[in-house]
Each structure stands twice: as structure tokens, then as C-alpha cells.
Amino acid sequence: MQEIMSKEELEEQKEMILDLFRSTERDGIDKLADYLSDSTDFFTAPASTRFHNNFSGGLAQHCLNVYENFKSLLEIKGIEMSEDSIIICALLHDLCKCNTYVVETRNRKNEQGQWEKYNIWATNKDVDIPLPHSSRSIAIIRKFIKLSIKEELTIFYHMGPYGGEDYEYRNMLKAANEKYPQTVLFYVADTIASYLDEETVTD
Q1: Phi, psi (5° rounding) for residue 193?
Q2: pLDDT in tens, 112-136
Q3: In the beta sheet, which residues pair with residue 106?
Q4: In terms of C-beta distances under 8 Å and separation of at least 24 residues, what long-range contacts does 27-33 make, across chains too?
Q5: Among 80, 94, 58, 63, CA closest to 199
Q6: What is the pTM of this model?
Q7: What is the rounded distance in angstroms from the CA atom of residue 82 to the CA atom of residue 36?
Q8: Residues whose CB falls within 8 Å of the CB of residue 48, separated by 6 or more in sequence, listed in order
Q9: Residue 108 DSSP class
């Protein structure tokens, strides 16, 4: 398992995110920041096991990438959203991924035909809150801070058409996108980060 971020880079990224949280002055944000620092692996977790940003610190980096993309897209399209809402949505939309990934050891043959051990990121299936991806993030956030309906919808629909397959979900996604164009841009920001800004590390 290859790691590409140094301890110094991880710490710098952590402080950048904590500074952004503090700038919102949202009631409860300090407790949320403490929770992330003391009770989760938010700042050291990967964003995925095999795809984008699958390295230590990848989740936090992904959230920062989404933050930058979302701000840019809102500005380009002339759609308003407060800075604190942008921060909350971008940095917390994947909060459900905290404490989800674990390191597992596997065996493989090397070029010399000998067996060797190597580490990979794997998913811990035992989740605290048995809700789907976006709903789980919202449930965790709500323990600490209040969300506006616009923020909640932005986070809930951040996977766009991949967040649900049933007829009702597709209709509600359409309605949310029409009423709150921020939801469209956030999905695009997340997709750009995942496919264009970030890398997949292979051993």
C-alpha cells in the first residue's frame, strides 16, 4: 500500500480544514471539529479503497478539492450560496466514510515467484448508523450542527443519479435540481474532483 502524503502535508491539510470550519462560526462547529480530530480518522482516511484518492489523507484532500470546485462553479454560473454553507457541504458531504476503511494484509507472488505480504485498504462493513451513504453523513452532522434545507439537499444529492435507483429518488432529484441549482453544481464539483483532480495509487 503506497502512501503519497507526508506527515507534514497531512498536518497542513488538517489545519487548513480546521481553519475553514472555524471561519463559519456555526454553533456546534467546534465540537464537530473536536469529534473529527479525536474520534475519527477523517484526516488520515482514504477517499476510497481502489479508486480516487485511495491513500492516507485522501478523504480530506477530496473534500478540499470539492470545496474549490464548488466555489468556482457557483461563481461561474452566478449562483449564490454563503461561504459557510459551501464549507459545510464540501468538507462534510463524505463524513460517513470516517472510520470505514481498514488496513488488511494480503499475500501475493512477487516477480521472483515468491510469496510476500502486502497491505491494502479494505472496507469495514460494520457501520454505526445503518443508513445509505449521504443520509449517514447528514445524520452524523446533525449531532453537532444544524443544517439548512439547501445544505441538506446539497449533501443528500451529491451522488446525483448514482445515489438511488428507484422512481421516487429520480423524481425527487429532478425536483431538487430545479429548485436548488446548487445541488447540480455540487454533484459536478464532486465528480470533477473524483475523476479529474485526483489519482488512484497502485502498488
Answers
A1: -60, -45
A2: 878 888 888 888 877 778 888 899 9
A3: 118
A4: 27/145, 27/146, 28/144, 28/145, 28/146, 29/144, 29/145, 31/144, 32/141, 32/144, 32/145
A5: 58
A6: 0.92
A7: 23
A8: 54, 58, 121
A9: E
| Contacting residues for 179 by C-beta, under 8 A, at least 6 apart | none
Alpha carbons 114 and 125: distance in angstroms, whole number: 32
DSSP-assigned letters across all residues of 141-169: HHTTS---HHHHHHHHTTTGGGS--SHHH
Using the Cα atoms of residue 189, residue 32, residue 138 and residue 77 in order, give the sign of their dihedral: negative
Burial of 115-144, coded b for 16+ CB within 10 Å and e otherwise, reads eeeeeebeeeeeeeeeeebbbbbbebbeeb
Helix or strand run (H / E) with residue 61: helix 58-77
CA-wise closest residue to 42 among 83, 1, 89, 101: 101
Write the pLDDT tens digit of every residue in 61-111: 999 999 999 999 999 999 999 999 999 999 999 999 999 998 888 888 888
Note the pLDDT tens digit of each residue in 159-168.
Answer: 999 988 788 9
> Which grid coordinates belong to 143?
449531532
Q: Which amino acid is at 199?
A: E
